[in-house]
Design goal:
The protein has ten helices and eleven strands. The protein is of the alpha/beta class. The chain folds into two domains: 194 residues, Spore Coat Polysaccharide Biosynthesis Protein SpsA, Chain A (Alpha-Beta Complex); 88 residues, no CATH class. The chain has an eight-stranded mixed beta sheet. It has a three-stranded mixed beta sheet with strand order 5-11-7. Helix 1 links the parallel strand 1 and strand 2. The longest helix is centred in the C-terminal third of the chain and has 25 residues.
Length: 318
Amino acid sequence: MQIQDDIIVSFIIPHKGREELLKETLRSISLQLFELKKIEVIIITQNQRLDLDLASYPFFIRLLFESEDKTISSLRNKGAEIARGTYFAFLDADVFLSSNWLKVMLEEIKEKDIKMVCAPQTVSNKPTNIEKIRVALTTTKSGQFLDFIGGGNLFLRKEDFSKSGGFPEDIITCEDYYFCDRVNKLGKIYCTSKANFIHLGEDKNWQELFKKEIWRAKGNIKSIKGRKITLKEIPSIIVPIWIILFAILSITGILSGNFLLFICGIFLVFLPIAMYSIRLYRISDNINFFTIIKFYLVYFFARSIGTLIGMFSKEKKK
């Protein structure tokens, strides 16, 4: 399909890995309640090849290949450089948008002072317990102005993206924290309750969750440098460090034969996990309390390990 002169929305999708999920993301774009000829999709992939029939889609697709050493921020910025739309829609390559997603984004962003919009995650047809918990956590944010939203689905004007300076290319994880901080200086960030998306690549088991959260947490400490830290972020930054410190305290108690020190350390390690679990149980529906405890045990211990690794590692600039 030839590109139109009046492109309104540019979908920018960084990609690496499973091709079948990317195809589902593209299918969800093709189902949007919008004039599809006024959409372009820019895929920046780190796969060596993609088996995509570009001509079969009802919108124009640009396909760029990048080396594996590039950060996700670099891929997004690369797509933005050639995007022709008045609006940019940054998507992960494993999401399935509700059919009204684009229509709602365009309506919401017209509101005064709103600079960026997103939609919350919803459950798939056969959700795992991990997916149910993720959705419960994100649903509480819908219909609200936020300081931070993840990079799964972001919608903003091209001019505001340019003013923000784009995504920071010199960090591997937590790049969305910096980007949201930059956009927040321009205006408000809003999570609508009128549309949603399914995260097709959601963790399917506890092992996947553990490995992914270790990776994400590697940039936990580095993500606070050079930007304003919001009050809501503080617990997620402090808790992994808290667990590390009091785990060391409990180990010291064992090694020194001090039983009281060991008990105090263990109690303080599990205190934030219990508090988070009780809070989530109160706001969630049909999720077993012990499943929630298991989630936070895996989540925070992985985050603690990732934070510890990140404190003693250096990220290479790309």
